[in-house]
Amino acid sequence: MRANFIFSEVWIGLRRNLTMTVAVIITVAVGMAMLGVGLMINSQVKLLQDYWYDKVEISAFLCSSGNAMPSCKGKGISPGQTTALKTEIEAMAGVESASFENQAQAYENFKANYGSNPALVQVARAEDMPESFRIKLKDPDNFAPIIDQVSKKPGVAQVIHQKDLIGKFFDFLEKLRSYALGVALVLVLAAALLIGNTVRLSAFNRRRETGIMRLVGASNLYIQLPFVMEGVIAGLIGGVFAAVMLIVTKVFIFESLTEYVAINNPIGWDDVAQHILLTMLIGVVICILASFVTLRRYLRV
Amino acid sequence: MIHFENVTKVYANQNRPALDHVSVDVDKGEFVFLVGPSGSGKSTFLRLILKEERPNSGAIHVAGKDLARLSNFKVPHLRRRIGCVFQDFRLLPNKNVYENVAFALEVIGKPRRFIRKVVPEVVELVGLEGKAHRMPDELSGGEQQRVAMARAFVNRPMILLADEPTGNIDPATSIGIMKVLDRINRTGTTVVMATHDAAIVDSMRKRVVELEDGKIVRDQSRGVYGQAY
């Protein structure tokens, strides 16, 4: 096997079909980037779920005077009622603990959570914060009966299960992921067809050479390898561009997620590296497959 | 060397067989003319030897190998032992004489040192010494065919197949081509040449196999082209 012979053939082939090669590179790059983004979102969701799901609690917000919630009937809750309510809640089956959060604590938490949004923190005052019970469950999945019971108690304005709040965010991320993966799928298909076309063009351009190669007994591998390598090299270059796009995505989107949403664990570089490796691998494998399938049709050996 | 036994070949979508129960034996070192009108099955005969086509029935042995049992994987190795020359030369226009001949060795993975040694020898054998760096379009038809013969012979094949090698060449130049083929034959290479050229066949006085409508109608050891033509 003469490597420089193969590579000169590959180089000639790529140069002859420059526009097709560029099209392949762009399609592979965008397709693989979308695939990578989908995978990154996937791991981000997993990370967030792991982080949040054992922290979720039920928040029971208490009535203050002037609260507009109908369950309060316009009256605030007295400190005595609050203590009574606490014992009642703690006595419920399935409740592990209930802690009271007064307005000052609520304000501190608010400031901590929205620290990246100074305008919001400035506008809010401690008096705006509702008092609440933070209820921890013995079994985080069995929340419905407790929400039901607590919300019926007098003096409780509203019961919120935090899972509902993060759940919506997760739903959004998952939609984003499906979208990215869907686009990736379409682009991968397009890339495969483009590679097929490029290989077909090269096979046609070089039919004299391949005819003679066949005649003098060059092995199938020797005849096919330059064509497959063309696809692989185009795929690899596309993969490198995809890797750059993924790194940019990680830096500018996943890192800055922390600024907009309460995410304090963006996916790490090791995850990103893994996804880049995986997407490049998939890209190259698709290129090889597409080349081989077309060669079978257009290059008689 | 080449052994056909009751070989029939019918191409798809055709009723008439291209070869019809053909049995023939070609020994090592023989020189055989394959004659007959167009469509008589000469090219099919050559393509079957190369395993470019498969027979519908019958057995073919080439260089001791049963082609029916030769896996596709091994067909390239069969072809390395068979050289081919065509009417239309089939040279690479962007490579010079030396590179065209060397190409045949490069693509079967021969080392460069070996190529540098044997290519000039073969170029000389076909009578193109001093023209190794000419491009094909700078050569006459006869010279181009010599390049093609050098390429076919450079790997020292056991068999050389020539499909109307003088078809595009004037009679005077054809004599030179035949001399080269004869020289190659004298090295012990079996030569099978399909041709329409009566003058050449008559002058060489070699074995003649005549095909007509896919059947062998004549097989003479020191034959001529035939009275009918």
Task: Describe this structure as you would to a colleague.
Chain B: It holds the Pfam family ABC_tran. Chain B: One of its GO terms (molecular function) is ATP binding. Chain B: It is a peripheral membrane protein. The complex is a heterodimer of chains A (301) and B (229). Chain A is built from ten helices and four strands. Chain A folds into two domains: 3-52 and 167-298, no CATH class; 58-162, Alpha-Beta Plaits. Chain A has a four-stranded antiparallel sheet with strand order 2-3-1-4. With 301 residues, chain A is an alpha+beta fold. Chain A has helices at residues 3-16, 18-53, 79-91, 103-113, 118-123, 144-152, 162-205, 207-215, 220-260, 269-298; strands spanning 58-62, 95-101, 132-137, 156-161. Chain B has seven helices and ten strands. A six-stranded mixed sheet of chain B has the order 6-7-8-3-9-10, sandwiched between helices. In chain B, α3 packs parallel to α5, α4 (112-125) packs across α5 (141-153) and α5 (141-153) packs parallel to α6. Chain B starts with a strand and ends in a 9-residue tail after the last strand. Chain A binds chain B through residues 1-2, 5, 208-209, 211-220, 222-223, and chain B through 50, 73, 76-84, 90, 92-93, 103-104, 106-109, 112, 151-152, 155.
